[in-house]
Amino acid sequence: MAAPATACQHSRRIGFKANKFNYRVPVQASRPNPSRLTSNVLPIATDYAPMEAKLVTSLPEGPQWEYEPKWDGFRCLAFKDRNDVALRSKSGQPFERYFPEIVAAMQGLRATRCVLDGELVVPDGTTLSFDELLMRIHPAASRVARLSRDHPALYVVFDLLVDEHGKALVDAPFSERRLALERFAERQFSGASRFRLSPSVRSRRDVDRWFEALGSGLDGVIAKRADLSYQSGERTGMQKYKRLRTADCVVGGFRYGTASGVVGSLLLGLFDAEGLLHHVGFAANIPANARESITRQLEKLVEPPGFTGRAPGGPSRWSSERSGQWEPLRTSLVVEVQYDQWSGGRFRRGTKLLRWRPDKSPRQCTLAQVEQESAQALALFGEGKLNLVRVHHSRQSMRV
Questions:
Q1: Which of 156-170, 214-228, 365-379 is the least confident region?
Q2: Quick one: DSSP state of residue 31?
Q3: Mind listing the domains of the chain with CATH numbers?
């Protein structure tokens, strides 16, 4: 379920706006500037809409599909014309000031001009950190500069829209664009430490191998139609599959609904190895016809401290819950919830309440359930101890 759709009031006050990912981008204009780069040579303007993906519950199969990892970052189109570089988010907002190391990396490519499609990610050791990525969207240039030095980003490239000769490839089928991208990467990415070529495979067995090795450390899989041109702004040529997971959690507290005397959300906890109960997220999809009776049951269990480790606070980058007030509960209730992502020691978004688990002991609700979330995503590039790099039919799906 989605978190309550409330905008970040603090963001509006300082001239930023919140988007659906809960990261803040500067409010500049109602529409992105559609102008081309300075020299007006590239055949694609910087307001060109990226191809989007349709969310599906199962991966399509057949010879017309190719598969790629779904990267947990910021979608970004990168434009280069000589020394001019533009980075654009999926919504068309500029990213250059937030990722100066990627701008410099684009300027350092031997190609005079090109347009790439990919994802900005930030490594933290052998994993990818969405927390570190979010920190980049900050108004202070000095902080962005420090973060770019301490935790430099990577640009994971998965499509080539304009090649180094300035030729637009968007009308070519993806199978041809992918081969052109692999040749481009061989020539351009060697020694360019900020770039990675995203793996691409034809076999479902290879996709299954990704999931077996990385488990929930893999955000999902993208399926692309190999026979279609670049579907700018459309969801007809690409599908995304996210494997949702479940976890059993202790209900360590609850919040009342806004201007309401009934429960608005359940506060979820997991035990660590030392026996401390940490707040890890919330579930708010409580049936309306059950809220009053559930509230009465919860109120009977109000008892501090609720959480003995990390306790709930005010709003976070993963939550739009504005109230810092919450009621601690005796450690006795367990629920099963569905979630899509674990990051920074908590569920990134609001979880979906599936059922109550009276058969489950609270002490069985441990962080070990989500430990595989830290699997080494960079293994897909042959980095770290877990190396998943392979050559698929002569396709170079690796770091080059």
A1: 365-379
A2: S
A3: 31-242 (3.30.470.30), 245-365 (2.40.50.140)
